[in-house]
Amino acid sequence: MSEKKTVERKSNKADLLDDVSTSNAGNVSLKEYNKTAPFSFNKDNYKLLLIGLAVNVLGYILMIGGANEDPNEFDGEMFSTMRITIAPMLIVAGFAIIIYAIMKKPKATK
């Protein structure tokens, strides 16, 4: 017939960490790996993140304005190419740069 395997539930976090540390990953404990593991964000990632933020802020600043003091008067400045086309493109580009900065892996060191 069929054999049913029973899975023992671990009651605390230390038992779970011990199981992970004894896996086939080179017999290195998880606690030791955490001490030597490289951080995902480095200097280049932070630079790209700040550049993306600056591009976003610039896009939002370019979108500001265009209000008319007299509601009965039409002012074409509100619908300028800068506010309708360029500023939203900058905002989308800023978000793309931020996403790239987050997803970029640091270069491997020897």
Q: Nearest-angstrom radius of gyration?
A: 27 Å
In terms of structural class, how would the helical and strand content be classed?
mainly alpha
Element-by-element helix/strand order:
HHHH
Count of helical segments?
A: 4
Which descriptor suits the 3D outline? Answer: rod-shaped
The major β-sheet equals: none
Which stretches are poorly predicted, pLDDT < 50 over at least 5 residues?
A: none
* Residues in β-strands, percent: under 5%
Tally of structural domains: 2
Mean pLDDT: 78
Amount of helix = 40-55%
Number of strands: 0
First-to-last CA distance:
53 Å
Describe the structure in your own words.
It is a single chain. The protein has 110 residues and is an all-alpha fold. Helices cover 55% and strands 0% of the residues. The protein has helices at residues 13-21, 30-36, 43-63, 81-103. The longest helix has 23 residues, at 81-103. The model has no long low-confidence stretch (mean pLDDT 78).
